[in-house]
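Assess the record.
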Amino acid sequence: MAHMVETMAYAGEVPWHGLGVQVDEDLTPAEMLKKAKLDWTVSKRAMYTTNKSGKDAKIQVPSHAVLVRDSDNKPLGPVGPKFIPTQNSEAFEFFDKFASAGKIKMETAGSLRQGRQIWGLAKMQEGFTVAGKDRVEGYMLVAVSHEWGRANEIRFTPIRVVCNNTLTMALTRGSNSGVFKMPHVKAFDSEIIRSAEEALGLANDKLAEYEERSKFLASKQYKEDDVVRYIAELFQPELVKQEEIIENSKNVSKIITSLEIKDEFKKVPSLVYQALEQGAGANLKSAKGTWWGAYNAVTFVTDHKWGRDRESALNNAWFGWRANLKNKALQKATDYANVA
């Protein structure tokens, strides 16, 4: 398996995924870019093929081009004619205004998947505490994709300190995706930066909203039946369907109990169930027996226990389908808490 992390730098404490090289704190976005070895550019170049015999001149493919890293001429993949590359330095300029005002602080930056995915992570000034000891810090993640079909993104990414779980919540109003997307059909210009700045302005509001929801989840105790069903719905929904079929048969003696469903859990849902009692931060007042604890059992396993290595965990936590799973887990936990 190819390494997911190509280069990475971090300031301060070792990040939750344990990857990268440590650098000085208080670096500017441009300095972090350089320390993370991201100070390279990309360019679109003509794509060619040959005739069947392999002789004569190369034949240009007018419908496509190749995105190439200029520093080592590494092809990053094919792109369409309307694809507009984004330079790493252009995206990191988004941080400048807020870093100079002291509103954010660069913490990590790096390259994933051999240069196809670039990111910078900045810590916001604001954070909050649930039930006295359970601290959540606010972060902004800017991601640059050097790949056709994948947009640049800004994510609001809270991190629960006690277990370093990366949490999720929508950044833009009316959005369920949890991201502010910047497609490669226009340049990363002042208009895009202005929209991104507005999104960062919303982050403070979103953090307050997230705090309210987190404290609400921490105030609601779950029932054993409900939390088992919650895990099954997220990770093994066929068990829920089986339960519904038997319940609809009106054969009371055959109704599946929560413990019977739990006994049929596969590895990942079993790990989530164990994390309710044994995961990092599980014994805190905010988490023990609460829907906040149930949600964080999901994020803990997703970030720290699921996958073969830390590199794939980092990629999946921010950019893979598991990031969407966390959004789903948060919404389902809220739905259960609303009727608890």
Observations:
- The two ends are 44 Å apart (CA to CA).
- The longest helix spans residues 190-218.
